[in-house]
Amino acid sequence: MVYEKWRNPPYKPGQKTAYKISRSKIDVFVQCPRCFWLDGRLKISRPSIPAFTLNSAVDHLLKLEFDAIRETGEQHPLQQEYGIDAKPIKHDKLNVWRENYKGVEALHQPTNLRVTGAIDDLWQDSTGKYIVVDYKSTSRNTKIEKLDDSRWNDQYRRQLEIYQWLLRANGLPVSDTGYFVYCNAIKSRQGFDAKLEFEITLVAHTGKDGWIETRLGEIKNCLEGDIPREAADCEHCAYAKSRTVLTLNALQKKN
Predict the structure, then answer these.
(1) Which of 171, 129, 134 is nearest to 152 (CA)?
(2) CA-CA 20 to 30 A from 68: which of 17, 42, 185, 221?
(3) In whole angstroms, what is the distance from residue 41 CA to residue 25 CA?
(4) Coil, strand or helix: which one is 80?
């Protein structure tokens, strides 16, 4: 069997086959088209960061918890606490839609881009509309009741909206309102005692996915064109440029 270096081969300008693009890669494009082009065309990716294994553990346990409630057909206590007209819903594709590197898929016909994204959970309200839910975990000193205007939270908003767009593209009636189940680790306890305690809140977001169609067109043009200029605030490009300058200066001193 031939070993494949990439999960997704490099994009070739003018290619006829659909090109797979993940939700996270769309976000890279929003942040810096140059970083996106280098990844898509040359497979030169941004440096990876260590896996957030504690966050993954929280995600896993939340899925088990909501799945147990899903089997009963009842509401989760968090939904009752916040007065949410919704229940965790069964769907025959939910396990696939949750799986990394598979997830929800939709082919965007105008660009021939196959968009993917793995959701955390799916609820349904009494009108039959599906509700996208994403789990987040962190540790802050204040109660998390809304999304602020930070860059991280902008990424979370886009993430939820892409999931909504994907599910709509799969023919599901999707509510504009999605939710973040926020697990905030409490640091005010007197000791660790081999356990973490969390304050769990539900944060609503009214998604607007109209931007996605435009972005997909821009992404297609980017993949077909020459390498773009770096974004002014891209720390990855700034680091690469500074390392290049330092290397060239070192070489000139040697010569």
Answers:
(1) 134
(2) 185
(3) 13
(4) helix
What does the alpha-carbon distance between residue 206 and residue 178 come to, in Å, rounded to a whole number? 6
Alpha-carbon distance 99 to 27, whole Å? 19
CA 169 from centre of chain: 17
- Residue 1 pLDDT: 35
**Residues 203, 138: Cα–Cα separation, whole Å:** 14
The residue with tokens 């290049």 is: 244
pLDDT digits (tens, 9 = 90+) for 159-206: 999 999 999 999 999 999 999 999 999 988 888 888 889 999 999 999
Domain ranges across the chain:
19-231
- Alpha carbon distance 56, 210 (integer Å): 30
- 63/67 Cα distance (integer angstroms): 6
Model pLDDT, residue 4? 52
Residues of the chain with pLDDT under 70: 1-6, 244-252, 254-255
- Is 179 in contact with 135 (CB distance < 8 Å)? no
Q: How many CB atoms lie within 10 A of CB 172?
A: 18
> CATH assignment of 19-231?
3.90.320
Start-to-end Cα distance in the chain: 47
CA 57, CA 35: separation in Å to the nearest integer? 30
pTM for this one?
0.91
